[in-house]
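Batch manifest, entry 17 of 40.
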Amino acid sequence: MTAHGGVVRLPGGRVGAVLEAGGVPVAYRPQSDARRLFDAYRRWLRETDGPLVLSAGTAPIDPAVLLGPASDVTTAAEAVARAGYAEMLALLLHQRRQRRVLVLLATRDEPRAVDQLETRVQQAADGLAGLGIRVERLRDQTLFRGMQALGWSPSARAPA
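Output type: structure tokens
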């Protein structure tokens, strides 16, 4: 399978795009907040038109995201402190995982299919972001890997 930008041609004449979304913890929220979030997610599902595939899993948490840029370190003492903090983060996060949800949106291969897909992708991403969920559009190699994670065959090809 090859991915062109953020769109891939799927078997059966469809074109697709993949969003990667994080999660929102609900277990420790007050019941009313959890219910409001559940209702908003249900509404998002109902409003998301056309073919949709969700695949939920977990991924390791990269300590580098919490560490901050090395360019902020200006003294030897800060460098030693940063190294200690990096080691502590690695130990604390060793067994921790983050939610990873792949959202495949697809449409028929029609003359304006890619334009229609782009509109759907933007609406889906905006809806998830409105729920407080981090969303990233997969492109090129990340799209290829996302499609593989969804179980799609490498024989799929990108639209012309």
